[in-house]
Amino acid sequence: MGMLLSANAQWVLFSTLILGMASGMIGCLAYWKRQSLMSDALSHAALPGVVIGFWLIGTKNMPVMIGGAAISALLGALMIQWIRSSSRIKEDTAMGMILSVFFGLGIMMLTIVNRFAGGNQSGLDSFIFGQAASMVRKDVYTMLVLAAIVILVVSLAFKEWKLFLFDPDFARGLGLSRRLMDGIYLAVLVMVIVIGIQAVGVILMAALLIIPAVSARYWTHSFKWMVILSAIFGGGSGMIGTLISTLGIGWPTGPFIVLASSVLFVVSLVFGVEKGLLTKALQIRLQKRELRYAAASGAKGPQRGGEAG
Amino acid sequence: MSVLEVADLTASYRKNKVLHDVSFQVQAGSLTSIVGPNGAGKSTLLKVMLELHPKLSGSVSFFGSTHSKMKKRIGYVPQRGSVDWDFPTNALDVVMMGLYGQVGWLKWPTRSHREKALASLEQMGMADYASRQISQLSGGQQQRVFLARALVQDADLYFMDEPLAGVDAATERAIMTTLKELKNKGKTVMVVHHDLQTVEDYFDHVLLLNRTVVAHGKTKEVFTKDNVYRAYGGTLRWMKEA
Questions:
Q1: B16-27 β-sheet, strand order
Q2: Do A223 and B52 touch (CB under 8 A)?
Q3: Residue B38 falls inside a structural domain
Q4: Burial code of A217-252, b = ≥16 C-beta within 10 A, e = fewer?
Q5: How far apart are CA B4 and CA B9, in angstroms?
Q6: Does residue B241 belong to any structural domain of this protein?
Q7: Among the partner residues B76, B88, B103, nearest to A226 by beta-carbon distance
Q8: b/e per residue B100-125 (b: at least 16 CB within 10 A)
Q9: Cβ distance of B170 and A217 shorter than 8 Å
Q10: Strand, helix or coil for residue B133
């Protein structure tokens, strides 16, 4: 397969791989911050910024559009924070509101831009469902650099993330600022989203942040391995989805990436060695058999080890 | 010498004022229980002192200085229910977290840190559970892991939020032995406590709290029927006739 791909397609493939890895890692942070939905809200909130960025320059200029996406996603995050803290509205409701309002605004502006300014040739539509194939070499570089930064931020401060996610109050007592960690978290989350939307699209970007982390949870009881596996699952889905989308002309990348990661999720759900359904069923069967064996051999039942409490 | 001075502390939770003009001083080497009815502001008091919750007015000083300067000398055991025990990590790892301040930010713990953490687990009778998933520990064992994490910090002043709530007898004994050892080493411990029956046996000082300080001092002098009734108002059914 790889041999059939042009040099550009190979670059694109490599960039969705590293994008998937970065979002898989950030997805683990979001999972334990209980903010999986936040990533969905923020990626939808990025759309108006993309369109405004295009509007201002008049051509598809990646840095400007990424900047626009980042500003509008951060604005969405701030508004969610503000609604939550200044009213009785709960966070999930606030996220739902911001998500739909920003997305509606983005679609409206997109329609207008498409009508005027020859925008329909710009390929702006690809930001909705993603079109990795439309990326040029320069876009790929931008993506690689930003994704590398994200991976570095998570790996270098790995122990800090673990402490912060498990017990933020205790972390604060040790001098780890909650505000600083929240700020860095939001920054890397937005970074992954804005570099990802061109390849995956604003609607499905959240899937790349949520599904790999959840899948990884079924395989391990170690946070480190959860992050590593989530990166592998995310990178794998990114690559597989992109490969499939190159089979047809104009096929969007996002849906295929999501489907690939969903398949990995189903496999994890069933076969995952720590929490998978099959493992659980096998454990119960094994325990039942032990019980029967113990009863048959005259013992009163298995002795429980350790202390009860 | 007083290691902790709280003056006119007032704080609110949501819209309700939960702490009002709280003032007290704690001497080094004392083992104090914070006792009061539900909603008396016991946990909030700890959180406000540790700057985890904002105060409206008043002051708190540790060792004659501020919290941020004395952080390393202060240890904290949060309520067991305040964290998600489904988090993928093991007992030793949680205890290691107590050493992160000593390890230094962005640095990796060394073997000697690991050994310290193991020793601390052993002190709490949890050495066999070092590599056990925290979700697979019983409530009492989880509490001991929390205690071990605090011990490894080697602080001089400890705050513990209901460490004896919902634990088995063996854990209660292990924790109380540890608290007395800390006291014998000259450390100061403040414990939010819910079981009035054991206050006299376990603690040499008591702080009766109901939004404000009802009484504070040596258990023998302060833990009287009158004071307890004053702290609990009409809500108290229990009080053994001595």
A1: B16-27, B2-13, B57-62
A2: no
A3: yes
A4: bbbbbbbeebbbbbbbbbbbbbbbbbbbbbeeeeeb
A5: 13
A6: no
A7: B88
A8: bbeeeeeeebeeebeebbbebbebbb
A9: no
A10: strand
Helix/strand/coil percentages in chain A, nearest 5: 80, 0, 20
A50 within 8 A of A28, measured Cβ to Cβ:
no
Closest CA to A204 of A256, A263, A268: A256
Using an 8 Å Cβ cutoff, are A171 and A163 in contact?
yes
Q: Which of A156, A173, A226 sits opposite B71 (nearest CB)?
A: A173
In a domain, B172, yes or no: yes
How many domains would you assign to chain B? 1
Residues 80-119 of B with CB under 8 A from A: 82-84, 87-90, 93-94, 97, 100-101, 103, 105-106, 108-109
In this structure, what is the dihedral angle of CA atoms A84, A87, A92, A98, given to the nearest 10 degrees? Answer: -80
Residues B78, B158 contacting (CB under 8 angstroms) = no
Query: For strand B31-35 and strand B205-210, is the pairing parallel, antiparallel, or unpaired?
Result: parallel
In chain A, where the domains are located: 2-296
Residues of chain B under the 50 pLDDT cut = 240-242
All residues at 6 or more sequence positions from B214 whose CB lies less than 8 Å from its CB, including other chains: B36, B208, B227, B230, B231
Task: Please compute, for residue B94, the number of CA atoms within 13 A of its CA located in the half-sphere on the CB side.
Answer: 34
How does pLDDT run across A45-95, given as a tens digit for each residue? 999 999 999 888 877 777 888 899 999 999 999 999 999 888 889 888 999
* CATH, residue B26: 3.40.50.300
Amino acid at A45: A
Angle in degrees, CA B158, B163, B164, rounded to 5:
135
Q: What is the C-alpha separation between B211 and A223, in angstroms, rounded?
A: 40
Residue B162 lies in a domain: yes
Q: For B103, how many CA atoms within 13 A lie in the half-sphere containing its CB?
A: 24
Q: Which residue's structure tokens are 């013992």?
A: A299
The model's pLDDT over A231-251, given as tens digits with 9 standing for 90+, comes to 999 999 999 999 998 888 878
Q: Please say whether the structural domain A2-296 has been given the CATH code 3.40.1440.60.
A: no
Domain span including residue B61: 2-235
Within 8 A by CB and 6+ apart from A145, the residues are none
* Closest C-alpha to B98, from B79, B114, B122, B80: B114
Contacts of B84 in chain A (CB under 8 A): 32, 166
What pLDDT digit, counting tens, does each position of A91-143 carry? 889 999 999 999 999 999 988 888 876 655 667 888 888 888 777 788 888 88
Q: What is the mean pLDDT of chain B?
A: 92
Q: In this predicted model, what pLDDT tens digit does every residue of A129-171 receive, in sequence order?
A: 888 877 778 888 888 898 899 999 999 999 999 999 999 999 9
Q: Are the CB atoms for A239 and A20 separated by under 8 Å?
A: yes
- Cα gap B50→B47, rounded to integer Å: 5
Neighbours of A46 (CB within 10 A): 31
- For residue range A5-20, what is the model confidence (pLDDT) as tens digits? 677 788 888 889 999 9
